[in-house]
Amino acid sequence: MSKLHSVATEHYMNTQRVLGDHVYAAASVIPAGRAFDLVASRYSHSVALASRFYNLMSVSSGNSGMKKFPHMSISPDHIDNALAKAGPGQLPGAVQSLILSGGRDLITQTSEIDPLAEGWDWVMEPEACDYCASKAGPGTGDFRAHYSCGCIAAPRFTESKTISTG
Ligand SMILES: [Zn+2]
Questions:
Q1: pLDDT tens digit sequence for 58-94
Q2: Is 60 part of a structural domain of the chain?
């Protein structure tokens, strides 16, 4: 990974973490009945952060970036089911996980349809748990994050397309 990719990836992880911390805190103080609206309103924020990161990685690899990303949406049923599964005290974690799935899914799905991408990597957060450490590296299928996971998906582009600075 180039230096620029490393810096961009670390920055992106931090921006999703800030969003995740914000919505976790918000979900901790609202009535449970408001959790649905919180997820529905913040999901697109995670997606927006991810689309900017995706194109930064693409352009800095010598590609043109995605003009049109897959449309990301989260269905009301999915939100309801996921929130219903959260145990006592787990609601903030469930809210956070649902919102951050927007960015993760945008990266994994775009990497699959972008002919210039090689795929995506599971980039683990610095204090990742054993489960996440075992997942780190090239990913397949869905990004199955646990509650309060701070790991991210990052697109992978071929090294040969890296811009020459010489
Ligand atoms: Zn994780």
A1: 999 999 999 999 999 999 999 999 999 999 899 999 9
A2: yes
Range of the domain at 136: 3-159
Distance 65 CA to ligand 1 centre (A): 27
The rounded Å distance from CA 4 to ligand 1 centre is 23
Amino acid found at 57 = M
Q: How many domains does the chain have?
A: 1
**Residue 165: inside a domain, yes or no?**
no
Distance 94 CA to ligand 1 centre (A): 14
Domain contains 107: yes
Inside any domain, residue 166: no
How far does residue 122's CA lie from ligand 1's centre (Å)? Answer: 9
pTM over 0.85: yes
CA 31–ligand 1 middle distance (angstroms): 27
